[in-house]
Design brief:
mainly alpha, Arc Repressor Mutant, subunit A, 3-stranded antiparallel sheet
């Protein structure tokens, strides 16, 4: 029995020694690991990796921002396209109205041109319209009088001159 007790003691001693070695080895291993991590963190390539990761994150954010702005530009392009289409439709509508004026009131194409000039540039005398249309004063005066008689323009005397102003809406 003494022998069996001796074996048990020796076994316990060995076990305690092994645990002590394991604990000591674990401490050493952890210390080595800590030193290795510090060395890696201090290494220039690790610093570059950290910087590259940050740069990549910033670049990703920047590209996301650019993408959002491009989406807004696409929206603005669509709005501009719709405005152009609307403007083209209004121009076509205006041309139809002008053609109606010619048909309904018996105005000529040249009368329509004179009317459009008055619409765009405002009130004019016969002399001013003649210069604008590159016709004689008497031709411009005849056109203005015809437009007045058709009810497309109004007359206004200013001193010795008469100014003609296009009506915005045609009254039937």
């Amino acid at each position: 029995m003494k022998l069996l007790g001796w074996f048990r003691r020796k076994k316990k001693e060995k076990k305690a020694k092994i645990e002590e070695i394991k604990l000591e080895d674990t401490r050493e291993l952890l210390e080595e690991w800590r030193k290795t991590v510090e060395a890696i963190q201090e290494h220039p390539l690790s610093q570059a990796g950290i910087i590259n990761t940050k740069l990549l994150e910033l670049l990703t954010n920047l590209l996301g921002s650019v993408d959002k702005k491009l989406e807004k530009l696409d929206l603005l392009d669509e709005i501009a396209r719709l405005l152009r289409e609307s403007s083209e439709e209004k121009e076509a509508e205006a041309e139809e109205i002008e053609e109606d004026i010619i048909r309904k009131f018996g105005a000529t194409v040249k009368d329509r041109d004179a009317y459009n000039i008055l619409l765009k540039k405002g009130p004019m005398s016969a002399e001013q319209l003649a210069l604008e249309m590159k016709v004689s004063r008497s031709t411009a005066s005849a056109r203005l009088n015809r437009l007045f008689n058709l009810g497309l323009v109004d007359k206004e005397a200013r001193g010795k001159e008469i100014f003609y102003r296009a009506k915005k809406r045609v009254e039937k």
